[in-house]
Amino acid sequence: MLQDYKNIRLLDATAVEYIQSPEKSLAPASLSSSALDVFTDFTLIKPVTVSESMSIIEALEYMKSQHVRLLFVLDNQDGFAGIITASDASGRKVMAFMQKDQVGREQVQVRHVMLSKFNIRALTYNQLEEAKVGDIMLTLKDSGDQHVIVVDESTAGVHRIRGIISSSDISRRLKISFDVMYEAKSFAEIENVLSQGIKG
Question: Whole-prediction pTM value?
Answer without folding.
Answer: 0.77
